[in-house]
Amino acid sequence: METFDVAIVGGGPAGSTCAAFCAEAGLRTLVLEREKFPREKVCGDCINPASWPVLEKLELAEQIRNRPHGVLDAVEFIAMGGQKLRADLPRRDNGMISVKRSLFDHLLLERARTVGAEIREEATVIALDRTAAKNWKIDIVREAFAARIIVGADGRNSTVARLRNLLPRPERERVALQAHIPLPRDFGDRIVLQFLPEGYSGQAPVNDSELNLCLVGTPPTISSLRNWAEREFKLAAEQAWRKNHSRRRSPTCNTRIHSCSSRDVSRAIVDQSNRARGRLIAAVRVAAPTS
Ligand SMILES: Cc1cc2nc3c(=O)[nH]c(=O)nc-3n(C[C@H](O)[C@H](O)[C@H](O)COP(=O)(O)OP(=O)(O)OC[C@H]3O[C@@H](n4cnc5c(N)ncnc54)[C@H](O)[C@@H]3O)c2cc1C
Question: If I label 22, which of 76, 95, 225, 232 is the partner at 20 to 30 A Cα–Cα?
Fold first, then answer.
């Protein structure tokens, strides 16, 4: 079985960024990603300006500026009654932009590969165990790897966190739908956050021709939000939507969960009981400003 210094589960922004930094630091790094990239993902596609220093460090900032993206100069809040409140965003080189996740995540994953991380796509992690040598044994279908450290960067329904009984307790159950639709004429360079009785909608142009449209509700309200969007944006009945799945939660154990360092980069979940014995499990994911 091949042994790595660090195995990262999930090749989204958190996993790829972590992998690039680990590989650049000379660690033998493996990324196991369930999907084949490029792929879209339910997201508003907006990049928080706080990400620019990380993107500069990854030597990706220029590439991202040269690819199709939206430049956003205002946020408009629309209340249920239709009242509008507009807040201007700073208009500068390192301001707020929007980029489709198929593009953004792919650039990050390729950067990790370029600097030496081994990337395995279509590799779904299904089991985790400790080996006699105190490494982690990580199983994907029909193959297994060993690593000294494992990083769970596999998103909100993290398999790593679930397998280690580290998922936080569920709070409110939300469901989201997302689509890229034709950009309405005169939409402008704005993000819209629109509050509706059943939930809310986020809208942002991602290039010259497409609008990112997100709907966030609860399992009982999501279909009426979709009906609202079909009317509001005159969408065809066959409009395709991406959906994020409800959380599948198992009960949490007594593990203490620590949020560490910058909120917008990562959250590390440390298994204190393992750490006391000199072992560390880190579950890292990019924290969402909006989710
Ligand atoms: C409706 C909505 C709108 C949002 N809008 C924004 C926004 O505008 N701006 C913003 O910054 N954030 C936004 N977010 C939040 C953002 O999407 C997340 O913060 C971000 O995707 C987290 O990145 P990540 O790398 O931690 O996880 P993810 O992007 O979820 O990546 C996890 C990766 O792990 C892989 N994976 C999962 N399970 C396994 C497994 N068992 N084995 C191997 N691989 C696995 C997945 O395929 C995926 O590629 C939004 C979220 C939602 C729901």
Answer: 95
Instruction: Give the largest CA-CA distance in the chain.
Output: 63
- 106 to 54, 128, 217: CA distances (angstroms): 16, 26, 28
**Confidence grade of residue 264 (pLDDT, cut at 50, 70, 90):** very low
14 in ligand 1 pocket by Cβ < 6 Å?
A: yes
What Å distances lie between residue 120 and 15, 112, 113, 164, 256, CA to CA? Answer: 12, 12, 10, 22, 31
- At residue 148 the predicted structure's pLDDT band, cuts being 50, 70 and 90, is very high
Q: How far is CA 208 from CA 68, 71, 101, 272, in A?
A: 8, 10, 16, 49
Contacts of 211 (CB under 8 A, 6+ apart): 180, 181, 182, 183, 184, 187, 203, 204, 205, 233
Q: Report how far residue 44's alpha carbon sits from residue 35's, in angstroms, rounded to the nearest whole number.
A: 20
Closest CA to ligand 1's atom 19: 288
> How do residues 5-28 score in pLDDT, each as one tens digit?
999 999 999 999 999 999 999 999
Q: List the end-to-end C-alpha distance of the chain, in Å, as a whole number.
A: 38
Whether 288 lines ligand 1, by a CB cut-off of 6 Å, is: yes
Structure tokens at 56: 């500069």
Alpha-carbon gap, residue 18 to 84, rounded angstroms = 39
Cα–Cα distance for residue pair 285/151, rounded to 1 Å: 9
Residue 244, strand partner residues: none
Minimum CA distance residue for ligand 1 atom 6: 44
Q: Choose the residue to mutate in 154, 245, 262, 263 for probing ligand 1, maximizing ligand atoms within 8 Å of C-beta.
A: 154
